[in-house]
Design goal:
Helix content: 10-25%
Number of helices: 3
Structural class: alpha+beta
Shape: globular
CATH superfamily of the largest domain: RimP-like superfamily, N-terminal
Order of helices and strands: HEEHEHEEEEE
Number of domains: 2
Largest sheet: 5 strands, antiparallel
Strand content: 35-45%
Strand order of the largest sheet: 7-6-5-4-8
Amino acid sequence: MTGRRNDELQALLQPTVVGLGYELWGVEFLRQGRRSVLRVFIDSPDGITVEDCATVSRQLSALLDVEDPIAGEYTLEVSSPGMDRVLFTAEQFARYVGEEVSVRLLRPLQGRRKFKGPLLSANSDELVLVQDGQELRLPMDAIDKAQLVPRFDDSGQDSPDLE
């Protein structure tokens, strides 16, 4: 889920984001040819606005210019985690026990890399979800990417209990 580079970037960016009054939800550094992307997800109990993202982006840009932790060119993107939020930590998984999650593993387990189902539990070692009526135990260190599957009520509006 998180590589060494992402962990280092998270540690660098965390104090600035928290100092601005937001939660640093997660960091993704993606190499995309000659131009890479540093994606920073922020959250707040009141939600995230475009202005929030712009404020955090300005502060992080200044920090990254001074610290220069990434060689080469990259684009900084600051956004909310959204309804289909990527889950980075065991604590984040634990917040969403009972919700449906989609998980992609680094390597196949039982001949598959992709799983989707209700999350039963999560801790630092594994998460347990139900797929096709069976409980599956997925090692946390085998997860490549995991995210919530958004739920909608019958009207097509966001489900109020999603958060």
